[in-house]
Fold this protein.
Amino acid sequence: MTVLTSPPFAWPDGTLDVRRVVQCALSRVCGGCGQSLGRPIAFLGTPDEVARNAFHAPPLHQECASQLRNTVAVGHTVVLTAGFEFIRPSAGAVEKRPIFVPNSIL
Ligand SMILES: [Zn+2]
């Protein structure tokens, strides 16, 4: 049973905090509750992010992802995966946010 923290771990002021996102990626903790991730891993994405299979929100527990759709990610789709790649922006890149690429969609 996972319990979403309020505010969610990676959205401390209601918007996504990049440092927390990086922490979630490197420590493999959930962006909703801050606890260790198991499987499956859930990502929340806009239709565009789902189409590109590239997400900006951190990895989440499935349950936390479902709850976040009621608050910070209204209208987003939940995608489940067994694993992901974490891509940090390169120096000078237009896109400054890290990107998550699920690599085995369930
Ligand atoms: Zn969680």
